[in-house]
Amino acid sequence: MKSFLKLFIFLPVFAIFISCEKEPEEPGNNDDINLSGKGIYVLNEGLFNMNNSTLTWYDFESEQDVTDWFEIQNERILGDTGNDLKIYGNKVYIVMSGSSQVEVLNAATGKSLMQIPFFDGEIPRQPRSVAFLHNKAFVCSFDGTVAVIDTTSLQIEKYISVGRNPDGITTANNKIYVANSGGLDFPDYDNTVSVINFDTMEETKKITIGSNPYTMETDENGFVYVISRGNYGDEGMFLHIIDSQSDELIHTFTDFQAMNFTLGDNLAYVYHIDWTSGGITSILVIDIETREVVSENFINDNTEIESIYGIYVDKTSGNVFISDAKGFTSTGRVYCFDGDGNKKFSFPTGLNPGGMGVYYTQSVD
Fold first, then answer.
1. Which of 43, 58, 119, 307 has a beta carbon 3.0–4.6 Å from 325's, enabling a disulfide?
2. For the stretch 202-211, what's the b/e string if a residue is b when 16 or more beta carbons lie within 10 angstroms of its beta carbon?
3. What angle do CA 342, 344, 346 make, to 5 degrees?
4. From CA 192, how far away is CA 164, in angstroms rounded?
5. How many Å apart are CA 207 and CA 248, to the nearest integer?
6. Which sign does the torsion angle of CA 331, 360, 114, 12 carry?
7. What is the pTM of this model?
8. Exposure of 362 by Cβ count < 10 A (0-12 exposed, 13-18 middle, 19+ buried)?
9. pLDDT tens-digit profile of 46-99?
10. pLDDT tens for each residue of 212-221
11. H/E element holding 126?
């Protein structure tokens, strides 16, 4: 499959813009869906500064979807510019950059447990992404900090200073890795990844990679993957690998322009732009052991994705979920593919679907 991606390059200029933990509640009265505890949450980013982010729930057993799941369950809107969604134990963490808060939900119900504000006095910190380690949540914000949150009390315990405008975060080998983008200092981007020691909660090193790094993920062998977006000029967008044992950059894929990626078992799925073919995008499949491209086009049937906006692998099933923003101003769609690249099903979402997380009923925190 090859499709045209409507690529909009935004200069990184962003608008500056508690409750106690509740006991988990039962799902609200919603006759349209029977929550089975097996499904996928989709964070619909909305349009920047329009306060129209939404949360879609798709139930695997009933095959039903609800686009305004958060609003239905909580009787209020989600907020502005949903930037990241991750599931840890029985909680969903939603990072709202425009609203400058992290919304924590009971994953089984979609009910809000806590709204955690991210402000330095009256100045919004603009949180961007979240990662987890040893019952702590780590949230990087554009103000150059990483917040440490206890996942039981949902209280911020401290802030750790890192590089400029961190935009991605992951954990590996008892450490936290933070992508310092410098995105608000265009064209003077940052080009480092901060390393934080979990035991001391202090930055111990900065690793130099490509300019404007952002999205990050860790494979099962402890290698950290990160994409640098370059300078939108003479420096390209590349996927890098960091060894979490040595904290050194050990590999950069330079044969393709990497837009975004996700990791499955032994495979990386990377969507990229081929400028030599008129801006055509495709999803590469890379063997993470050999670091070789094993497929130039993951999608094997005739499914066409108009504007790829997110990609996510459910490691339990091996299914690959790809979100389509359509025209970026209308409702989107998520497609589910099996590991061989054949479409299994799809469902509608809200505006600009990005972050995704599959939830199965669990008992751990």
1. 307
2. ebeebbebbb
3. 115
4. 9
5. 7
6. negative
7. 0.89
8. middle
9. 988 888 999 999 999 999 999 999 999 999 999 999 999 999 999 999 999 999
10. 999 999 999 9
11. none
- Which two three-digit tokens encode residue 96? 């709202």
Please state, in angstroms and rounded to a whole number, the distance separating the CA atoms of residues 200 and 88: 23
Question: Considering just the CA atoms, what is the radius of gyration of the chain in Å?
Answer: 19
- Write down the residue that tokens 């495709």 correspond to: 282
End-to-end CA distance of the chain: 40
pLDDT of residue 333: 97
Residue whose tokens read 């987890």 = 132
Alpha carbon distance 213, 72 (integer Å): 36
CB atoms within 10 A of CB 298: 22
Which of 16, 130, 38 lies closest to 317, judged by CA?
A: 38
Length of the chain: 365
Position 19 scores a pLDDT of 32
For residues 176, 317, 128, 179, the Cα torsion angle rounded to the nearest 10 degrees is: 40
To 5 degrees, how large is the angle CA 237–CA 242–CA 243?
A: 165
Which residue type occupies 309?
Y
Query: Residues of the chain whose pLDDT is less than 50?
Result: 1-34, 363-365
